[in-house]
User: Fold these one by one.
Assistant:
Number 1:
Amino acid sequence: MPKLHPIIHAAGAERQHPDWAVMTEARRRHTRRVGRLLWEWSRTLGHDRMRRIRWRAAGLLHDALKDESPETLGLEVEDAGAWPGSLLHGPACANRLRAAGVEDELLLTAIAFHTTGHADFGALGQALYMADFLEPGRRTLSRERAEQRRRMPSDWHAVLGEVATAKIVNLLRRGIPISPATAGFWRAVTAPAGTIR
Ligand SMILES: [Fe+2]
Ligand SMILES: [Fe+2]
């Protein structure tokens, strides 16, 4: 793997957010908990230090623009109209990273689609999707989620299916349309195992 971009290194090795991040203190803590889970999973999977840093960086960075207004973020995302305002922070953050010179497409896809899921997720995209949902600071269903955390990363495919089901059912209950990205992700999740890259 090529050398890590300075923003990725700062986030993953020093747990620092970029200077353009717009986040409350609580949000910064959430991203650090997500990053810690990713770091632990990556270590358990036997990844080298550089890959662990990259995985933790995805956790630190995924919500870097979560507290910016959807109006502002809409100006930065080409197909903004296709996204609910509350989900624009993913693609907007990926765009900022790309503009800063980050070329790690699997990491950029992981961040852009962390809310919806995506058929093109690599292992990192799937891990971020799960860690965002399972991090221990989330209060709802805390016992069930703690159990799912304990099963990670060894029971990867089953936990991924459970998390995707929970998140998609939640969308359906709230009457939110299922995006093409989520539909494609669901097809990938329910495909035969062994498709993780
Ligand atoms: Fe998010
Ligand atoms: Fe998040």
Number 2:
Amino acid sequence: MYNKVFGDFPDELAWREQMYDRHRARDGFRLTLALDGDRLLGFAWGYRGERGQFWPDLVAETIPGIAAEWIGDHFEFVELAVEPTSRGDGLGGRLHDELLDGLTGKALLGTTSDGSDPAVRLYRSRGWRTLGMLDSDRQVMGVRLPLAGRS
Ligand SMILES: CC(C)(COP(=O)(O)OP(=O)(O)OC[C@H]1O[C@@H](n2cnc3c(N)ncnc32)[C@H](O)[C@@H]1OP(=O)(O)O)[C@@H](O)C(=O)NCCC(=O)NCCS
């Protein structure tokens, strides 16, 4: 399902070896799944992010003004996806909320800069705000946990 939504790995083995196995070994890894029987409808995952990892270092170097406040011991919200035919029914929001449930402190994510994108709208509606731009197409968003009204 990952490739159906994001389409950026040649096959499942490459996805597993180059991304998923590395991510799930990280501190504080969390995974939330939406299942209909054994059919996967959606997923979200993240982990504790630290300086020394590729993405936090890239953010710190590109947007130095946010490093001290936001980077280090933050929760990194890495992926959120709902299968195309199951979208628009609240599943993405529930996966988002469940992944962050019980966490405190800072959370960060990288996403498109397109404010009309469904994911960006979802994040904004949950309190995430833009912290800066990685480039003209990609922004970094942050939120303080617990989410307001969702402790
Ligand atoms: C982003 C995504 C997970 C949303 O899943 P979903 O199940 O459709 O989301 P929900 O139905 O829970 O919607 C939650 C909120 O998202 C926003 N949203 C979702 N779909 C939207 C759309 N088509 N247009 C505008 N806003 C939308 C709304 O703010 C909505 O709030 P509402 O419930 O008050 O209307 C899904 O569109 C997806 O998998 N997209 C492709 C992958 C992706 O971009 N992931 C994020 C990578 S950073």
Number 3:
Amino acid sequence: MDGPVFTWRRFPALLALASSCVTSSVASPTPQESTTNSSFWPQSCCDALRSSLGSKVSLPNSSAYNASISSYWAQQETLIHPACVVSPTSARDVSAALKVLVPRRCKFAVRGGGHGAVAGIANIQDGVTIDLRGLNSITVSSDRKTVAVGGGQKWASVYAKLQPLGLAASGGRNGPVGVGGSTLGGGFGYFSTQVGFACDNVARFEVVLANGDIVTASPTSNANLWKALRGGGANFGIVTQFVLNTFPLGSIWAGDAYFSPEALEAQTQALYSLTANPNFDVNTGLVVNYAFSPSTGPIITNQYVYAQPIINPPTFQAFTSSPGQLMNSTSVTTLAAFSAAQEPISPNGFQQVTFSSLFKNDLQMLRDLWNIYTASTQNVAAVTGIQWSLSLEPVVPAIAAQSSARGGNVLGLSIPQEGLIMVLLTATFSSASDYPTVQTAADQLLANIIQAAKSKGVYAPYVDMNHAGKSQDPIATYGAANQAFLKAVARQYDPTGVFQALMPGGFKV
Ligand SMILES: Cc1cc2nc3c(=O)[nH]c(=O)nc-3n(C[C@H](O)[C@H](O)[C@H](O)COP(=O)(O)OP(=O)(O)OC[C@H]3O[C@@H](n4cnc5c(N)ncnc54)[C@H](O)[C@@H]3O)c2cc1C
């Protein structure tokens, strides 16, 4: 089939992300709003850091500083200018940095892969940004059951290391996404139905605490910290190493297929039935996207991944046989190649607005969702460069079973037999001047989705941290017991609340 000629190329990568109008949890200062409010001037924080860490601290206008600041995914993050960037290469460096910053009450941000979509999540105006990308080791254990990954690595490198060994790890779908942020926020990937979320597969964390101590968190050492880090975000310490379980994976069948709205009813029924299937095939990884740009109008762009080299397996045939297919790029490939290929189709440097929501799998809700979505496109159609993508991801009971088999997490996701549908907005556009228009449209769309789900009795309050919008409060949706547990663990390991007060970026307990 002929490939499309216009901007559809970018849509399949718009798999993720989100923002909303709910409660406030993330501290996400715009450059204008940001304040260091510390008892030391930012410059003296940087001077003290330089005394301790020398050339690992870079100042504005240096090449190291510029390389760090310009390499975030979201344009919003690149517009934030810290007083200095510290680039540790070991846990001891991270410890040394915190021993300088914390007693001086210097405000700081922690940057992993830099793929967060919220301004200020991993960068800080006039503060100190700790850029972890120098923590980039990847070591496979001798029994090949685990891989130890530095806290600043990206999934593409992990998959590339494991691929020749016939192995993989549960992680993000796009290669450039950071292991750090995505794992601490849960980590829903292609193979979650087979092996659980990324966070479920962390056998051991190496963590630098607020006081500079370097500790191990595992089922046998600081077990409550280990559990809290499985979805609790950056509230407890800086993770300098993730020891991840591996699983066997050879070649896969994967790719994208685009459909005109003619396919809608067939696609909707296929999504409902696949998600509700009591015999769900756990090799299945699926994302259905509703995608809009002014040049294409609304279309449907599916991403299929099957964990075996089987072309068009039965699990996807209700999708692949539906009318209105415009393009199909599926092939037998590898996870390493497929995830790396996502990088150019979801490029750095654009403004981003995101949100996350969830509802019970319901045919009428799915039918109404398309209408709610297409109506929302009118609010952004005039925005320069807009790509307005709503991703729908099946959340099936097999995932919960895998999570609990691996020691559980703090996400509090209860998955009914008929499954859930996770909904993620990714709005990508060119100019900061359009931000208010896009954010308002996103807020309205989220409110309409929630209202429709509530009116049908299918609303599920869970918000995925990795795709949450700046005003959403994911941890508040994990359930009262998990929230209380996370607060208690934060108090135990960080009694003065450094990772909330001095590190304002990220979603807080
Ligand atoms: C194109 C794209 C595709 C995506 N696909 C997926 C997907 O398939 N599945 C999924 O679950 N999510 C996905 N995401 C969302 C992604 O998981 C989140 O944006 C995540 O926060 C990115 O992590 P990062 O380390 O790259 O980001 P950063 O912006 O660097 O960090 C995000 C947060 O994590 C903290 N953090 C990062 N590393 C550490 C560390 N080592 N120790 C302590 N704190 C740390 C930061 O301080 C910050 O608060 C995708 C995002 C994009 C842009």
